Amino acid sequence: MAEQMIKDWPWRERANLSPFAVALKAGDITWCWRDLQHRVDTLAAGFIQQGVGEGTGVVLRSKNTLDAVLSYLALLQTGARLLPLNPQLPQALCEALLPQLDIGFVLDLAQSPLPLPMAALTLQNAYCGQAAQWQPQRLATLTLTSGSSGLPKAAAHTAAAHLASAAGVLNLIPFTRNDSWLLSLPLFHVSGQGIIWRWLTAGATLVLAEGQPLEAALAECSHASLVPTQLWRLLRQPSVPAKLQHVLLGGAQIPPELTEQAERLGIRCWCGYGMTETASTVTAKRAEGSAGVGQVLAGKEVSIAGEEVLIRADSLASGYWRNGQLTPLTGSDGWFHTRDRGMWSGDELHIAGRLDNLFFSGGEGIQPEDIEKVLVSHPQVSQAFVVPVEDAQFGHRPVAILDAQDSLPYDELNLWLSRQVPRFQLPVAYHALPAALAQGGIKISRASVRQWLETLSA
Q1: Which residues pair with 53 in a beta bridge?
Q2: What is the DSSP code string of 62-105?
Q3: 283-292, 416-425, 439-448: which range is least confident on average?
Q4: Once rounded to an integer, what is the mean pLDDT over residues 325-331?
């Protein structure tokens, strides 16, 4: 269902085209597209009666629940400018950030509501209230970037951009109306929203875990988006879900052993490269163990200038939203400068790391991602971060923070690593990744890892 062919909100189109096909499963609930449309229509009318309208800034603060998905669709249908918000963001950050984003209302569905100085919305059903017309070029969502320095930025996407992102992925990964995708990633992350728009594009079934363990929720799914740690845990279960056929991996380095084991069990693994500003994926491929991130997807362009990856894409955000205005993402050359280091191998893109992550130790340049790629190739390491610590003699030295099996001695790991990287790249210390850092999203912030490490020496 291409964007230019859609004449109404995608869920309403689906209700018209295939009203009784299964749209959504959540625990014991199964709804067809007509059921879904009715609930979204009445909820949108309720929001409109409370004062939400076209261009209204609205925060949706919630984990992935059925009410959150319904509210996401209903708020879009009002024409609001919707900001899904991580419930774990501290109040001080919200108070500093939200006034700059022109937020008029907050719908807080989190277990611990946060007192914010905006009008509170509630879930109310109504049967009158004119929904906004389908205008795919209207700003639809604000999604916060990772905010590695200063306040996060709010990337503003149209519905057309989200649909273009979905079309690019589905041009590569088979996903039809007979399939089902687990909403395994949060709506406040661009990858979670990517699942929503791929579901709407394909007219397939969206599955919500609704408190179930991951392996139980996946029993209903043909597709899932997972981080490597989640897939490792799944593969360590006595059996894998029989219906699961495709897994899109993201958020960390992907060990070859992981995808090889999954493929042996009949699970096709995919990986790619993208970011908040591009509404998720720009390049992708079958994850076969090589270091690249795949070929450029339809509707996207990638160039490399001075080692930096530049992007033009139909899914690119309209700009960063702040104080009622959009700041363009692209430079005067028309390209979005990602600050990622990249190179080509044939038609496949390789990402060497962030230009901003490079640091020097005794005059030697260290790209942390180079060491991390080697570390995660160890069969007992699921995830690795290498960050610099200040050193009087060398300027900086690398330290490794790992999600690894408890039985792995760090001195043995260091000996193993010493055979594969130059001596100046060897970490001077190893630490276990704290569980708290892994909460709340697909991607662990490198800045949060560095901040945690600083508390150890404070």
Answers
A1: none
A2: --S-HHHHHHHHHHHHTT-EEEEE-TTS-HHHHHHHGGGGT--E
A3: 439-448
A4: 94
Collect all residues with Cβ–Cβ distance below 8 Å to 126 and sequence separation of at least 6: 42, 45, 46, 48, 49
CB 389 within 8 A of CB 426: no
Phi, psi angles (nearest 5°) of residue 4 = -70, -15
Q: What is the pTM of this model?
A: 0.87
Split at pLDDT 50, 70, 90, the class of 2 is very low
Q: Cα–Cα distances in Å, from 74 out to 12, 19, 58?
A: 11, 18, 12
Q: What is the CA radius of gyration of the chain?
A: 22
Distance separating alpha carbons of residues 139 and 158, to the nearest angstrom:
4
The secondary element (H helix, E strand) that includes residue 29 is strand 29-32
Tens of pLDDT, residues 32-90: 999 999 999 999 999 999 999 999 999 999 999 999 999 999 999 999 999 999 998 88
- In angstroms, the CA 438 to CA 270 distance is 22
Of 283, 275, 218, 277, nearest to 251 (Cα)?
A: 275
**Euclidean distance between CA atoms 340 and 355, whole angstroms:** 6
Q: What are the tokens at 97?
A: 């950030």
d(CA 79, CA 131): 8
Widest CA span in the chain? 71
Order of strands, edge to edge, in the sheet holding 336-345?
Answer: 300-305, 308-313, 336-345, 348-354
